[in-house]
Amino acid sequence: MKQLNLFTLLLAVMVLPGVTLKEQEPPPRLVWNPPARYDHEYAGALTIVRVPQKQVVTLCRQLFKGNRSDLVVTNTQKGCAWRYEGECTVITIDRVYQNIQPKDVIRHETGHCNGWPSDHPD
Prior knowledge:
33% helix, three-stranded mixed β-sheet
């Protein structure tokens, strides 16, 4: 008898107006695409380096320091880019990190290769 009452209660809850039972939704993907004028393939030679996230931090710091840049690299850095003489190097995570896909990092960093400033003005 208890099973029938529980079933009846669940059925009643499911058909009440305004009451919905929904599956847990996955967290939203964090994507920060460059503005349209920078969001295209790089015309020069593009080198993409895919490494584990901790190596991204190390390599980006080396890349910026070696080019005398004062850009800051955080411990959660997912990628970076440096453009020089018609070439651009993109360093990116090699797998999903903090719900960010490597392809999204490459798109973002390629925007920097195309001239999008590091302070993301638009």
